[in-house]
Amino acid sequence: MDVKLKVAVPQQDLSAAENLPFGLADEVCEIENLEGEDFWIREESDLVRPLSDFPLPCDRIVIEGELVRKLLPQALLAMASMLVDWPGSELCVRLPGNEDATGFLRSIADLLRALELRARGVRLISCPTCARCHTDILSLARRLGARLETITEPLDVAIMGCEVNGPGEARAADVGIAFGRGVGLLFRRGEIVKRVPQADAEDALLEEVKRLCDL
Ligand code: SF4
């Protein structure tokens, strides 16, 4: 299943919406072009309507962006139960004005990814850290996430804090690293690539991701 995430904006906002990061929007269209027998989510009560209430095939769902923004995270929870078995092909988010919708569009993209309905870009997995961890995992994940924003390939990148439980998750990702004291063990698709000094880990992870993407 590969659901398209579409963004509908007023005509004057088209160019701004086309520059959305993270491959968030597969397509941008004008609001005026939204027509048809779509399932519309306009009000809170629509979020708890079963899709079976609507004329089939209900291939496209159109949702008011303002509703999602206002109700986060409740809207995401409701959408998750609505979409979990949805066989449709397009989720369209309607944005009525020129506004920064990046945050909640990313939440919707993450939801679709979690439901295995759509995969775009890098999913960063990092361990929650504990007493075994001697690396600033959070800062590394933030920096790396920013540097990976332009990657649209669906890849998992794991950053793990110790050599005890970290290698399993790092090995299972497309690119992963498990840190020990001052050093990280770098994996690519289950194979050990090399050991890297902690200071070089960020560049080494980025290099492996680019290699997988042929960049
Ligand atoms: S991977 Fe290691 S450092 Fe991270 S939470 Fe698990 S045990 Fe702790």
Structure notes:
The chain is an alpha/beta fold and 215 residues long. The mean pLDDT is 89. It is built from 7 helices and 10 strands. The protein is elongated, with a radius of gyration of 20 Å. The strands form 2 sheets. A 5-stranded parallel beta sheet has the order 2-1-5-4-3. 30% of the residues lie in helices and 24% in strands. It folds into 2 domains: 4-114, no CATH class; 122-212, Sulfite Reductase Hemoprotein, domain 1 (2-Layer Sandwich). A hairpin with a 3-residue loop joins β8 (175-179) and β9 (183-188). The two termini are 26 Å apart. The longest helix is centred in the middle third of the chain and has 13 residues, at 102-114. The chain binds iron/sulfur cluster. Iron/sulfur cluster is lined by residues 127-130, 132-133, 160-162, 164-166.
Write the layout of secondary structure elements.
Blueprint lengths: L3 E6 L4 H4 L9 E4 L8 E3 L18 E5 H7 L2 H10 L6 E5 L7 H13 L7 E5 L10 H11 L7 E6 L5 H7 L2 E5 L3 E6 L2 E7 L3 H12 L3
Q: How much helicity do the residues have?
A: 25-40%
Largest sheet descriptor: 5 strands, parallel
Estimate what percentage of residues fall within beta strands. Answer: 15-25%
Q: How many DSSP-defined strands?
A: 10
Work out the oligomeric state of the chains in this entry.
single chain
User: Ligands in the structure?
Assistant: iron/sulfur cluster
Q: Based on CA inertia axes, which overall geometry fits?
A: elongated
Distance between the termini: 26 Å
Task: Give the mean pLDDT.
Answer: 89
The string of secondary-structure elements, in order, is: EHEEEHHEHEHEHEEEH
With strands numbered from the N-terminus, the spatial order across the biggest sheet is 2-1-5-4-3
Q: Supply the helix-strand structural class.
A: alpha/beta
Tally of separate helices? 7
Number of domains: 2
The stretches of 5 or more residues where confidence is low (pLDDT under 50) are none
